[in-house]
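Q: Predict the bound structure with iron/sulfur cluster.
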Amino acid sequence: MAEAERETLETGVLIVGAGPAGLSCALRLVQLIRGHPAPPLQTDSIYVLEKASEVGAHCLSGAVLDPRALRELIPDFEAQGAPLDSPVTSDRVFYFTSSGAWKLPLNPPFLRNHGNYVVSLNKLAKWLAQRVEGAGVNIFAGFSGMEVLFEGSRVTGVGTEDKGLDKNGKPMSNFQPGTNLRAKVTVLAEGPRGSLAKQLISRLGLDCDREPQVYALGIKELWEIPAGRIAAGEVIHTAGWPLASSQFGGGFIYALSETKLSIGLVSGLDYGDPRFDPHSAFQQWKTHPWLRRLLEGGQMLRYGAKTIPEGGYFSVPATATDGALLIGDSAGFLNSQRLKGIHLAMKTGMLAAETIFEALCAGDTSARSLGKFEGCWRASWVKNELWKVRNFHQGFEHGFWAGAIHGALQYVTGGRGWRARYPARAGHERMKQLSETYTAPPEQPKTDGRLAFDKLTDVYHSGTHHEEDQPCHLKIADFDICNHRCTAEYGNPCQYFCPAAVYEMEEVPGGAGKRLKINASNCVHCKTCDIADPYQIITWVPPEGGGGPQYDGL
Ligand code: SF4
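A: Predicted complex:
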């Protein structure tokens, strides 16, 4: 479309993403504005863009919340009715074999959750958004940021998507051109593998001297079960089966109440077998006798999936540049050992707000001024927490047992382990070709519609909806690679790693082999394909704003 058709709006601070990081940034800015006699901006010149149709609908986490950042942001959060389903009442850790469950006699210190809360992240985001909107901040739900706007190397804002384009990119009768939102400061808080953050990091080389980011995929379901099997606030983690000992990951069971459970399996996206299917592994995990007893007679209510940045301290890119900051999961602020990131997302959002406010007061939003954010988070408990686990995920390079030994060594050496900085490799580089994979294909669990579900049933329970007639938001750089080279070399792993049955190899009429079919409307926006594709030829871009999952209680 012609650039001239696009409206341009000028604002003070533009935050992309209404998750815990973006909303905490907005709320901290509000507090600073209110506490200043002559603030450099007003609350209505803070814009928050959110691609979901309503705030929280694309937020998903386990989740056990460490309330440290929330307490700093809203000291009386309990009195103000923060949606905390239950304080954690007990912790247990099990090691699973296919039929056995061994409880660890002592919980590792990092999996002790006394003082934390079992929560639903999308409820928490909605609650934060009410406070932000109530203070006069503009939240634009249902709008996606498509491109970072630059003047030279300075970020000047974000261009939103055109609405009402058909499959071929042609305007339809309901066509609405996107808007160029220009801001003094742009904050990217899109969550893991943000599409704008990816553009920015790549264009400016913000990760040039860092370790590559590595990810895991978390797949979860919300269940209702009969009373009397678990107490509200129980937190249970599992290691072992059904994941191979070469893989990183484990299961979780968090009791929101006596009858409502968040359950899920986290699988590292740095596995070797190209036929590994994280969704199948999750379904298989639920058939373990221990879980079967817990879930039987219950009902699956909701489903969702999201990637998790696991790389830690050495994978965090430069977080500030001229006119822009990166916060939360978009920058990789997550403690993979504690399985927690919400508190780090919130804290980095708050520190970013303080840096921005100071920069606006000084009338200088250059990299030199916004770069103070680097010093702020490194001087805060964010650095202390990440530093202690700086080599954690990388210690699992050679599998679970080696990782456990490295983890113990790192624990006693304050995070160091056997060397100062463990090297990392991007997960997709560790995927093996079929010719190097000597095992039989992983066992597929039988789906029974009661305990184990197929991908389409789960997608239905994610509430996912996209406008069908729109350009495909999964951009494949070269279909020839998919249909020929990848088929021969990797067996098209996208059909396995996608937890929403988006990628399918369909027969070409006339018996001319198979070709890739993309069922884009199933996409739950987890970003796995953008991360795990061995050729790195899949680019996830936001679909028309408002499309995607409709998470509720997840
Ligand atoms: Fe996730 Fe990609 Fe599948 Fe969408 S298409 S659900 S982003 S793996």
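A: The chain has a mean pLDDT of 95.
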